[in-house]
Design goal:
It is a single chain. It is built from ten helices and eleven strands. The radius of gyration is 20 Å and the shape is globular. The chain has two domains: 5-122 and 306-323, ATPase, nucleotide binding domain (Nucleotidyltransferase, domain 5, 2-Layer Sandwich), CATH 3.30.420.40; 136-301, Nucleotidyltransferase, domain 5 (2-Layer Sandwich). The strands form two sheets. A six-stranded mixed β-sheet has the order 5-4-1-2-3-6, with helices on both faces. It has a five-stranded mixed β-sheet with strand order 9-8-7-10-11, with helices on both faces. By secondary structure, the protein is an alpha/beta fold. The mean pLDDT is 94. The longest helix has 27 residues, at 241-267. The chain has helices at 45-67, 86-103, 112-118, 168-178, 185-193, 216-232, 236-239, 241-267, 282-295, 311-323; strands spanning 5-10, 16-22, 25-32, 76-82, 107-111, 123-124, 136-141, 146-153, 156-162, 271-275, 298-300. Helices cover 42% and strands 19% of the residues. A hairpin with a 4-residue loop joins strand 7 (136-141) and strand 8 (146-153).
Length: 340
């Protein structure tokens, strides 16, 4: 079998990542994160793009060295074209174009969201791996997206449900901020919730038709509940932080799983995958195992290293596109918003 070496670059938000793939096997996956955004309570686009400019060369160099692959051995360069922050994307796209042109090798554009979904097909040398068979349903949850996707093949994906306002991860970050916690808020809520009572508080759930999601109402319900409680006791949040986190978290997970179960039942698909940054959440993973046991689902949950933004997921999409000779022109621009 021909060895295809692909350098993959991911720079859609605040993580600069580069990976080297040999076919669908990841040889290296290097990511540089940006701690500077914590003090602002969210990603500052201008600071993110400047940090990408500083990180891109050393990250790519480290990925090539760890993989023990020279740039002359590369078959193609895969890169995140979008969606994401435009300034951040431009750094990765521009670097990919320059390197591909200098090596006279093809470029492969990758949709960031497809990367998250196909992260389930990343293989590691010496590690047992099982990928979902087509078709399967994938719950894709991150700071910017909450979608249920019917995956018919590597290149045929259909969004059957998505958020009409806030994404699940975004709601977690915003409610964490309301409680005075740090950024990103999702992992902090996850940690606090492990010691809390998930039934201590009841927050409103949306009534949205079909498979679509909404989290703005939950966020408002959470805010009004806290305002009332803090008006009676200024230190209420600090005293009950674990219970608040657990109750909020279980409500988010319940909303996500209710629609996913509805989609699985209606479409008669029991192969159910999970992807995106929020897929690292403990309660969501536990819910997947619980539903699998109760409803006979065959579940697929990626390892933690492939849940957040990383270049290996871009590389595996790039590999399948390479097999189809699905290359892109040098003048293809980055894009900030799109659907799969």
């Amino acid at each position: 079998m021909e060895k295809v070496y692909i350098l993959a670059i991911e720079s859609s938000c605040d993580d600069t990542s580069a990976a080297v793939m040999c076919n669908d096997v990841v040889l290296s996956n290097i990511t540089a994160s940006q701690a500077i955004h914590e003090q602002y309570g969210g990603v500052v686009p201008e600071l993110a793009s400047r940090a990408h400019e500083l990180n891109i060369v050393p990250v790519v160099d480290a990925a090539l060295k760890k993989a023990d692959v020279s740039k002359e051995q590369l078959s193609a360069i895969a890169f995140t074209r979008g969606p994401g922050l435009m300034g951040s994307l431009l750094v990765g796209v521009s670097f990919a174009k320059g390197l591909a042109a200098s090596l006279s090798i093809p470029m492969i554009e990758v949709n960031h969201l497809q990367g998250h979904i196909l992260a389930h097909f990343i293989k590691e040398d010496g590690v047992e791996h099982k990928s979902p068979e087509f078709p399967f349903l994938c719950l894709m949850v991150s700071g910017g997206n909450s979608q249920i996707v019917k995956v018919n093949s590597y290149k045929d994906m259909e969004i059957i449900g998505q958020t009409i306002d806030d994404a699940a991860g975004e709601a977690m970050d915003k409610c964490a901020k309301i409680m005075g916690l740090g950024y990103p808020g999702g992992p902090i809520i996850d940690r606090l919730a492990r010691s809390g009572n998930p039934t201590a508080y009841q927050f409103s759930k949306p009534h949205i038709p079909g498979f679509d999601y909404s989290f703005s109402g939950l966020k408002t319900s959470f805010l009004y509940t806290l305002r009332k409680l803090v008006a009676e006791d200024a230190d209420y949040v600090e005293k009950h932080i674990n219970d608040l986190a657990a109750s909020f978290e279980v409500t988010v997970v319940s909303i996500l799983m209710d629609k996913l179960y509805k989609a699985s039942k209606q479409l008669k698909i029991k192969r159910i995958a999970l992807s995106g940054g929020v897929s690292a959440n403990t309660a969501l993973r536990e819910a997947y195992h619980s539903y699998a046991k109760r409803y006979g689902w065959e579940i697929f949950i990626p390892k933690f290293g492939f849940t957040t933004d990383n270049a290996a997921m871009i590389g595996v999409v790039g590999y399948y596109k390479y097999l189809d000779k699905d290359f892109c022109a040098m003048n293809e621009p980055a894009f900030s918003r799109t659907v799969i």
